[in-house]
């Protein structure tokens, strides 16, 4: 018996060693060629998860309508940027393969197939579920061919009063077709040929657009809907909130634009143009002027998609396809209103609160006392906020206090995207006008925010702000504000580091992290980082911060490799990360290596993920989830176990090549124990979600786990309730405390 026990003990001792040996053997094996998923298809899979919210019958109907609008605007941007970029790649380098092994034309074909599936599902949901439920609730789109007398009278009055005086038709032909602005709605009108007027007559021959075998040639015209008229037009009548879309109203009365002519067809359509236009900074003497030129060029770049009413004739479709040089897969027949973004307007209609989500008002952070200076609060210890549950107002308040504080000497800030009437920008202008040294890095190359940023840059310069237009060849995407303050003990730097933009509007919709600190080392690092950008100099070595494109990639790879080595040596390796996208091949391969070594890896990736989780002998220990809920998950949080001495970091960068190599980004360690505990609590909550969580399969598909008998747990609701409960306790404590008012307070 004793001998047997000794043998058993001996075998138990050998197991860890043999396991380590097998891991070391596995880690040296070549990685399979099919280990990456295609980035574009992964993005479309994300949009399908968003679309699933529109199909969720448990959500209020206006929220479902909003998610239809979101998927529509998401798809617009995807077509402009990703499809536009693929078409350029196909022209320039048709044999170049992506990490998944696909050339551009193969990606375009796969994207078109999936894109058509998404559009078909969007309009199926709109017709069969969303519109009928909205109509039952009193929000109805009026069909003017079946309208009541009162509704038709209201529509007629609106047309003659508001629409007819503004819109103008334009005769067109295949050899004289105007350049149309991207994403603008138009009506395409086919008229019976009039030999006397020859209005917009198509040229004879193969380019005429004439349908083969037709007895006579049609004549064509356009009516642009423009941008000055609102698209959703209220119509009084039988419905509580009846409305008609501008293009439907104009189409119903289209004969009025062509007196004496016979209108054969009236088709709504919309072009999407390529927005992936390259700006050659090396050839531009003026960045500001160059970006203004890019904005102008984008309006008339090559079309990449044509959406048109599904009832359009073959002749109309063929004509529009030919004049815009589009391939068949670029054509989208739409059985419903083109461009579902009008549903955002319906979502915002007053008087229908019962059809929307319950409001979750953000709460003040319990550490932030409204009667105490922000500088006093931060000096007492780091403050970590989780937005939109904790108010973003505190960040704005810090900058506004800095603008007014006579002891503040300087404010340095990066602005990537801001709101329309930004209080942050206004505060920086006031600070400069009061003689403070204010420097703002305004990223002019922030896609689709270029025009707004150009205006802010000019306005701040007029106020005396030193404005830097980003970095040559890179986008400045870091989120940092440094406030330099003179205090009795000397100069103190107060900082805000974030994962989101300085935009108080999107801060109510995006889930992000803010860290407020006056840590001396971080302050020194942040100043060196900022000066390197503004001074176009080689950045000095940073002690705690890591910056892209210089040190961040190496920092991440080293942190992953450290967990790998701990696991190979018999320790516990663990990585938990939350980010928006995982695309970079080197990072993915390093994670595969870590998984082969036995590191437990949990990834919460909102959007694109090109890594395959759960593949035997490759990624057995990797789990990937995605949370899609009422707030857009935008925070980047990283936790490395380090044998129990956990290292937590927040940052502005995703694990994408563009973030790590072609953008200026920041990675910030969080040292304060309470702040770290809260970050870990946030990370863990997402992995407990069984309501709005999607789990990624090895083939790239996503499934919602069956929770069985488990009670429902919705991570965003849990995070909000925790903030509310903590705030209530803090408020109760404040009310129970006597606070004398001293002289001069």
Automatic annotation (TrEMBL):
Q: Spell out the residue ranges making up region: Disordered.
A: 1-24
Write out the entry's keywords from A to Z: ATP-binding, Kinase, Magnesium, Metal-binding, Nucleotide-binding, Phosphoprotein, Transferase
Name the domain of life. Answer: Bacteria
The UniProt record lists the Polyphosphate kinase N-terminal domain at 36-140
| Sample GO molecular function, one term | polyphosphate kinase activity
> Which positions are annotated as binding ATP?
74, 510, 606, 634
Q: What class of enzyme is it?
A: transferase
For this protein, the Enzyme Commission number is 2.7.4.1
- Looking at the record, the residues that make up the Polyphosphate kinase middle domain are 155-346
Active-site residues, record numbering mapped to chain: 477
Instruction: Give the compositionally biased regions (Basic and acidic residues).
Output: 1-10
Reactions catalysed = [phosphate](n) + ATP = [phosphate](n+1) + ADP
* One Pfam family this sequence matches: PP_kinase
**Cofactor(s) needed:** Mg(2+)
Binding, Mg(2+): 417, 447
Residue span, Polyphosphate kinase C-terminal domain: 373-538, 545-716
PANTHER family reported in the protein's UniProt record: POLYPHOSPHATE KINASE
Family, as annotated: Belongs to the polyphosphate kinase 1 (PPK1) family.
What is the purpose of this protein? Catalyzes the reversible transfer of the terminal phosphate of ATP to form a long-chain polyphosphate (polyP).
Q: What's the protein name?
A: Polyphosphate kinase
The species is Stieleria magnilauensis
Its taxonomic path starts at:
Bacteria, Pseudomonadati, Planctomycetota, Planctomycetia, Pirellulales
